[in-house]
């Protein structure tokens, strides 16, 4: 192992692991060499690799890759927490998704992870008052990944969105740390009220496929929302809810449902 990798191991084990996996991937599949080199091995940090990957994915005839790359690079320089959150997301996906057996996979292939990282850039732009550019990121993330997250929405770290198709998260939604959700989840509003109108998801919550959480309601930490449920009322911590409209059907079944990913409704 070279000196640079040894240094990375001391200060950034996630990036070190990704770099090692990238070298192995090139050896195992030489036809992927160009993609892996440009996306990972040509970079000195995860932040640089993420900026490149995001800008390549979102570039279009309306907005070239170079401009988007500059925006992303600037965001990572200005707010180190964006990169820290990305590392937590990678570890979360690796730990919770049985289809993910390497750290390299979310960065290269998983649109849920990639959409969240692009949203983090859009959110910073929104906070800076660059609303139109933030909306451009939102539009392109929706077009490219099928994930529509308003730039104002606040998303925690350690997020795992499995499959990620048709995810919708509204403007005043808040998603806590270590949350897991599956495809077709909606965190939406009700009516035409333009104030605080979207759900507040606590830490450690598991949201099943197709679940709809509507209105300015709190979903308590470490709770579970069953697949296909429509949640219209507050959910206490550490409970399981299911149905249309959703009702409490039992305890959450464990202390970390978003990590365990157990979606069976029986009380554990």
From TrEMBL:
<dbReference type="GO" id="GO:0005737">
    <property type="term" value="C:cytoplasm"/>
</dbReference>
<dbReference type="InterPro" id="IPR001451">
    <property type="entry name" value="Hexapep"/>
</dbReference>
<protein>
    <recommendedName>
        <fullName>Serine acetyltransferase</fullName>
        <ecNumber>2.3.1.30</ecNumber>
    </recommendedName>
</protein>
<keyword id="KW-0808">Transferase</keyword>
<comment type="similarity">
    <text>Belongs to the transferase hexapeptide repeat family.</text>
</comment>
<comment type="pathway">
    <text>Amino-acid biosynthesis; L-cysteine biosynthesis; L-cysteine from L-serine: step 1/2.</text>
</comment>
<dbReference type="InterPro" id="IPR045304">
    <property type="entry name" value="LbH_SAT"/>
</dbReference>
<dbReference type="InterPro" id="IPR011004">
    <property type="entry name" value="Trimer_LpxA-like_sf"/>
</dbReference>
<feature type="domain" description="Serine acetyltransferase N-terminal">
    <location>
        <begin position="14"/>
        <end position="118"/>
    </location>
</feature>
<dbReference type="InterPro" id="IPR053376">
    <property type="entry name" value="Serine_acetyltransferase"/>
</dbReference>
<keyword id="KW-0028">Amino-acid biosynthesis</keyword>
<dbReference type="InterPro" id="IPR010493">
    <property type="entry name" value="Ser_AcTrfase_N"/>
</dbReference>
<keyword id="KW-0677">Repeat</keyword>
<dbReference type="Pfam" id="PF00132">
    <property type="entry name" value="Hexapep"/>
</dbReference>
<dbReference type="InterPro" id="IPR042122">
    <property type="entry name" value="Ser_AcTrfase_N_sf"/>
</dbReference>
<dbReference type="GO" id="GO:0006535">
    <property type="term" value="P:cysteine biosynthetic process from serine"/>
</dbReference>
<dbReference type="InterPro" id="IPR018357">
    <property type="entry name" value="Hexapep_transf_CS"/>
</dbReference>
<dbReference type="InterPro" id="IPR005881">
    <property type="entry name" value="Ser_O-AcTrfase"/>
</dbReference>
<keyword id="KW-0012">Acyltransferase</keyword>
<dbReference type="Pfam" id="PF06426">
    <property type="entry name" value="SATase_N"/>
</dbReference>
<dbReference type="GO" id="GO:0009001">
    <property type="term" value="F:serine O-acetyltransferase activity"/>
</dbReference>
